[in-house]
Amino acid sequence: MIVKELKIEDDPLQAPFKLSSQTLDHRVVLAPMTRMRASEEGIPHPRTAEYYTERTTPNSLLISEGIVIHPRGRGFPNTPGLYNEEQIQAWKPITRAVRETGGVFFAQLW
User: Fold this and answer.
1) Distance between CA atoms of residues 37 and 80, nearest Å
2) Is residue 97 part of a domain?
3) Residue 68 CA to chain centroid, in angstroms?
4) Residue 35, domain member (yes or no)
5) 40 located within any domain
6) What is the span of the domain harbouring residue 34?
7) Under a CB-based contact definition with an 8 Å cutoff, are residues 83 and 69 in contact?
8) How many domains does the chain have?
9) If we measure between CA atoms, which residue out of 48, 55, 87, 92 comes closest to residue 71?
10) How far apart are CA 1 and CA 62, in angstroms?
């Protein structure tokens, strides 16, 4: 069996990708996953910014965990929300930290 050596520049996952107004350096994406680390009121955990920035590389795409857009839409306990001012304000430092690390952050609305 002949095995061809794959170079990074030949790997489609490492190829740049234009996503609307954003150009990503590669096609590896942090997929959304339910973490259930928010408060009972839907406020993201204080270390959520650290969690996402640790997974950010320059010009990479991260998709958030499911973010509840209405109290009745909560499918699991301790999931973050985005339907009141306190929740909105709690997400701002998270999204800012991801952008400052060079990432592109999308919210998975639930």
Assistant:
1) 8
2) yes
3) 15
4) yes
5) yes
6) 15-109
7) yes
8) 1
9) 87
10) 38
**9 falls within a domain:** no
Specify the DSSP class assigned to residue 38.
S
What contacts 58, CB < 8 A, 6 or more positions away?
A: 25, 101, 102, 103
Q: What is the predicted pLDDT for the residue at 32?
A: 84
Beta bridge partners of residue 10, listed in sequence order: none
The DSSP letter of residue 92 is H
> Which amino acid, 94?
I
The pTM of this model reads 0.82
Determine whether 80 is exposed, middle or buried from the number of CB atoms within 10 Å of its CB (0-12, 13-18, 19+): buried
pLDDT tens for 4-59 read: 665 666 777 778 878 788 888 787 888 888 889 999 999 999 999 999 999 999 99
